[in-house]
């Protein structure tokens, strides 16, 4: 039995979209586990915990000022002014408000976001088959990332509710230990999930752009920019491509998801408000407050997340399929063989 047949038997006959790419990259002897195995998906989830939890916690000061600009632009007029006012009111230490719910919430989100993305991407590729998976790969990335983010936001929402209130409501609780039971006591469990719909509205388009734009940008960089195939690049060169593609994807992510991000911040600041009322009160221009600091934050975040995630895959020996190439069977059908 050949290696391709073995893989088809274990993962179904349609998983060749990824398996053949790995074989072309040099076989499977160098990998710590089999592509598509439970261990593979579990380790991808761990990589997501590290990439999202660490990076979001790292930029808490920027996130805090961004949220304050969104909910009170009259007081926090710009990024620089927002930092000055925040430091004047709470000192440098005050810039770390909300770090604990950020670390916990985004670690949980990263586990689901990256872990489930790999699961759904493999699942949907299996359903499409090798040729259609290649032809409709952008739609494949969009569908897999949207499916993953749906569950990731459910994991994130409670901690996001606590974080935003800590950062934007002066005099409210300043720690997770105080804030979590306060929301539970005053609003019940609904208080933790009142922002789930706007969170989906923000995060699902963001994640769809994050993954689809990243995947296609990596493909384009190796095709048009990098002077040699990925197989000939060393690990450091490959990770540099990952970082650049991640930053480009992050800029588009920030723009696409920004209006919903503003609404989430206002929604958690104003008790009893709802998505539609907040959107009406803000108006079109109001939903773009704080865009520049968010572009800086999300661009940096996304680049670092992909860099950490790919570095984790390299360090743990996980399979990393190279950019897709047209299957030989499709070339023959199109007369390109």
TrEMBL record:
Membrane spanning stretches: 239-257, 291-309
Annotated compartments:
Mitochondrion inner membrane
Q: Highest taxon of the source?
A: Eukaryota
How does this chain sit within the bilayer? Answer: Multi-pass membrane protein
Q: What does the record list as GO biological process? A: mitochondrial phosphate ion transmembrane transport
Solcar repeat boundaries on the chain: 39-123, 136-220, 237-315
Q: What is its main location?
A: mitochondrion
Listed GO CC annotations:
mitochondrial inner membrane
> InterPro entries, per this entry?
MCP_dom_sf (IPR023395), MCP_transmembrane (IPR018108), SLC25A3/Pic2/Mir1-like (IPR044677)
Q: Which PROSITE patterns match?
A: SOLCAR
* Alphabetically ordered keywords of this record: Membrane, Mitochondrion, Mitochondrion inner membrane, Repeat, Transit peptide, Transmembrane, Transmembrane helix, Transport
Q: What is the name attached to this protein's record?
A: Phosphate carrier protein, mitochondrial
Q: What family, per the record? A: Belongs to the mitochondrial carrier (TC 2.A.29) family.
Gene Ontology molecular function terms on file: phosphate transmembrane transporter activity
Q: Give the organism the record lists.
A: Dreissena polymorpha
